[in-house]
Amino acid sequence: MFKKILIANRGEIACRIMRTAKAMGMRTVAVYSDADAASLHVAMADEAYRLGPPPVLKSYLLIAKIIEACQESGADAVHPGYGFLAENPEFVEAVEGAGLTFIGPSANAIRQMGLKDAAKTLMEKTGVPVIPGYHGDNQDPEFLSQQADEIGYPVMIKARAGGGGIGMRRVNEPSAFQAALKAAQREAKASFGDPHILIEKYIDKPRHIEFQIFGDSHGNIIHLFERDCSLQRRHQKVIEEAPAPNMSEEMRAGMGAFAVRAAEAIQYEGAGTVEFIADTSEGLRPDRFYFMEMNTRLQVEHPVTEFITGQDLVEWQFRVAAGEPLPVMQEDLGIDGWSFEARIYAEDAAKGFLPATGRLTQLSLPAEEKGVRVESGVRQGDEITPYYDPMIAKLIVHGATRAAALNKLSSALTDFHVSGAITNIAFLTALATHEGFAAGDVDVGLIERDLPKLLSKPNPPGEAFAIGALAALGLTGYRDETDPWGALIGWRHWRDAKQYALLDWQGEPVTIPVVSKGQDTYLLDLPTGEIHLTVLERRADGLSLRFGDRIVPAKAVVGVGEITVIFAGQAYTFGLANGPEEWREEEAGGDHLISPMPGLVKLVSASDGAIVSRGDVLIVLEAMKMEHALTAPRDGKISRLYVSEGEQVEDGTILLELETQKG
Questions:
Q1: Is a pLDDT exceeding 90 seen at residue 646?
Q2: Three-class SS state of 141
Q3: Each residue of 476-507: pLDDT tens digit?
Q4: pLDDT for the residue 489
Q5: Residue 186 annotated to the active site
Q6: Which domains are seen in the chain, by residue range?
Q7: Edge-to-edge, what's the strand order for the sheet holding 133-134?
Q8: Which is the catalytic residue, given 297, 343, 373, 402?
């Protein structure tokens, strides 16, 4: 077994790999960019080596620097994690050329499955069913448009390299094909250095079902059952589960056999995933699934497989890479219960799931107990930067049945609290309690169909407003009870002290009069009526409050320009209405185009003095390798352009200014 391994990655997956490595007695080496110098994965490692500045092209993708770190540290093996260089055959060859072991498949296996068109051609020869489409080399736009016509709309444009939804576009009609093709090619070129695309028939009610496979150097290849990854937005997975709901034993056996056959075709070694798309327009049928792609690495969602099988897949990776046979065979494996994984991201679901940034002023995780697991690469006080995937954590749960596991997921989400950055926790909570999802009626289009309902936010209860008001006035913080002046906050000698808290809820200012009645009791005049509130105890980890005859715990976290109130299992974030004014969408929609997220200015199709019409694409931003087109908010003339292609901009940056065109 290896003595020291280097993890060529960052964040939660680097931390995850280190935990198993340390449990097996191995020393660990981290690599980092300047943005990650104080990160959790660096702190966990036995030693760490700098790669370069924050951009991935200058740090985590520098093969030579990583090999140099291996040699300096004396590491004898490299684990790539997922993303970055995990599926780069040149990296595998560089690692092996340096006399080290790559913990993953061979460069040849990665190459054979790395390009979707070649992989599908190979699968056709192997007898694995593939979806109808064009997978050839001719990339002439007019020819591709003709192929789409022959396949029949709607079609899906896909980059042949990479994955994660990058370079993918659904096209519903011929008139939209060329614009979608160019956008997909730009994304593919930027992310994978390869603009080559393929076209496939779009399936109306698809389910994304994948099989975890594992092979060793002794010729053994098995599968560890399926995962359902159908809950997606913009082709990015949101909640995964294992096993797949409503999966018959006949279909599981058939898909599993094809997954193993796909791996055998390339003599696969290590962890991998064979992904299928299932046509569920007439239900989940054993004759309606097709090979989509193979990921030649460990998947983000591997913990759900670990929960239902009781196996540590990272340990398997180490053992297989060290030349050991698989620890169990197919007949030794079984499915135990049900598991879900929810990905907690810093992103604004209401703005199309745009990535967000910020410093995590509060990070309160659910307690890890039987059936609850949290994988994270950040701590309270860490910053979510615009340079990398904005994942905060993965929440994984396990229960005896699907219903039990789903209840556990919903409960754990209510105990997951973050402030300092916008997150998707409220969205995930709504999804976990979605009626169709709870019934197992899932498909890739579920989120898009029900998005307005999933994004709707109930108004906070009066108690939450009251707690926010006290926090805004500085009346919820811990006090030194030995300080006689500390007890006089809010006190007046002749009459009740009256103050005004100014909060903002979803763009609407709320003024709340607060009267101190003495002995930490307050009367608050809310729009919904009066509330009497007594602060019984202030602790570092929260508050104990009395509303009438009811005593409840709560927490108020004051951040920059905002207050997050955690009450009754929910988190409510209020703005401070008397803080710095921020651009609102309706204000910005007049004379300015403002960046809705941090990102890279990929394309500028506007120029000073240009006449534009409402809806014209003026600027294309790239964030998390996905392109986002920003359009003119109204008709007008561009009076000033503030950015140029290649610039990195922050959320709220003014990109250009409009003036009214005079007739």
A1: no
A2: helix
A3: 875 444 444 444 444 444 445 678 899 998 87
A4: 47
A5: no
A6: 4-103 (3.40.50.20), 132-201 (3.30.1490.20), 204-336 (3.30.470.20), 343-457 (3.30.470.20), 462-576 (3.30.700.40), 585-659 (2.40.50.100)
A7: 133-134, 197-201, 155-159, 169-171
A8: 297
